[in-house]
Amino acid sequence: MLPKVTIIGRPNVGKSSFFNMFVGHKIAIVADEAGTTRDISEYEFTDKDREITYILADSGGLDFSSKDDEIARDIIERTRNAIAESDLLIWIVEYNRLTEEDDQIIKILRGKDIPPVMVVANKADNDEMRLESYNLPIVSIFPDFFPISVSHHF
Ligand code: GDP
Q: How does residue 20 score in pLDDT terms, banded at 50, 70 and 90?
């Protein structure tokens, strides 16, 4: 079975944008469960330089018509499922703030039997913002920390 990498994070941090960035360039569809309750898309990705193939999964969009507490519950459920099924998690946050929803995710990620976590601080659209991202308190907890800007392609 191929290793699985799952993108997690609260709504609006840029998960779909990050996923599409990969899909647009290099990935073939292997499964797309859009429309199901879990709404997870999976793509088989081959990194030719490193000679490794893995499944990249997007933990999916949320129904914005849901109430806040339903959204929070959904994030928790998706994060737990991702942990159970993945060999690596890519947790996307915004470069300059953590919300209560992010705090929920932190609590889960500090539990037992968690796969390695890479934190991607998105929307760091210039150098100043990239520097600022290192003020996020999670930097000391999750040392694999990468400020990026999907929309500016870096
Ligand atoms: P998701 O809900 O986590 O899947 O987030 P989306 O991919 O739908 O993105 C949410 C919003 O953030 C959209 O309006 C995107 O255009 C915007 N966005 C995504 N990446 C960036 C970025 O690097 N910089 C900025 N400024 N906005 C971004």
A: confident
pTM of the full structure: 0.89
Cα of 142 vs centre of ligand 1, distance in Å, is 22
Straight-line distance from the first to the last Cα atom of the chain, in angstroms, rounded to the nearest whole number: 31
Residue range 98-139, pLDDT digits in tens: 999 999 999 999 999 999 999 999 999 999 999 999 999 999
**Ligand 1 binding site (Cβ under 6 Å of any ligand atom):** 9, 11-17, 61, 122-123, 125, 149-151
Q: What is the pLDDT of residue 38?
A: 46
Distance 112 CA to ligand 1 centre (A): 30
Nearest atom within ligand 1 for CA of residue 148: 23
Residues pairing with 44 in the sheet: 28, 55
Which ligand 1 atom lies nearest to the CA of residue 58?
A: 4
Q: Structural domains in the chain?
A: 1-12+36-42+61-154 (3.40.50.300)
CA 103 to CA 49: how far, in whole Å? 36
- What one-character DSSP code corresponds to residue 18? H
